[in-house]
Specification:
Length: 209
């Protein structure tokens, strides 16, 4: 099985739960009120989130079920997890399968979809490579950071850093449509001028008015 590392933000139901993450040794996501998701496939999650209480459609639905699928189905015991909170970065190892905690399934504030974590260290954003800091800009509750696995492992366990970390390209995934992601790479040291040129180029790629 390939080595995996994941981003999980500490804001289930838009509430900062970093204290709960640390004291309860967990990571969690929101979307309360839809019950236990054990055994639910990606398609099941899409159908669940398209119905009340959320009734998502279009791009919002695509982003939501892709994120929940990561947390429920793609993470595994032994994977690394990175949780950013402001300038602080918390690193640990996932130690459980997906778990549903009905005690915190409040529809407004819940964080019932959980995994247990063995937290190893706390660092700051300045300790991260420029490439990894850039990857944390993704606007997702959970995201795959496995292309930074070597660096995250070194930081988590206080090991020597792999060589040429800063020269690795950054892999970008953008949900253009609910069922269509665009994936591409950019240099880790991309400049503002280069990003603006890339934006101009992409704006020309329309074939249908």
């Amino acid at each position: 099985m390939a080595n995996k590392a994941w981003l999980v933000r500490p804001y289930p139901s838009n509430i900062n739960r970093i204290n709960e993450f640390q004291t309860e040794n967990i990571v969690a996501i929101g979307w309360p009120g839809i019950g236990d998701l054990t055994g639910k496939t990606r398609q099941d999650l899409k159908e669940i989130l398209s119905k009340p209480p959320y009734s998502y459609t279009a791009l919002v639905l695509g982003n939501a079920y892709a994120t929940v699928d990561i947390f429920v189905n793609q993470m595994n015991k032994g994977d690394l997890v990175l949780t950013p909170d402001g300038d602080n970065i918390y690193l640990g190892v996932i130690t459980s399968n997906y778990e549903f905690n009905p005690k915190v399934d409040d529809i407004d504030t819940g964080y019932s979809h959980q995994r247990t974590v063995e937290w190893h260290t706390k660092i700051t954003r300045d300790d991260l490579s420029k490439a990894l800091r850039s990857s944390l800009k993704v606007h997702r509750t959970a995201a795959d950071l496995s292309h930074h696995y070597g660096e995250i492992k070194a930081l988590c366990f206080n090991m020597p850093m792999p060589e040429a970390i800063t020269t690795e390209p950054i892999k970008i995934s953008y949900p253009l449509r609910p069922d269509f992601n665009i994936s591409f790479e950019i240099p880790a040291d991309i400049t503002k001028e280069e990003a603006e040129r890339l934006n101009t180029f992409i704006s020309t790629l329309h074939f249908k008015d």
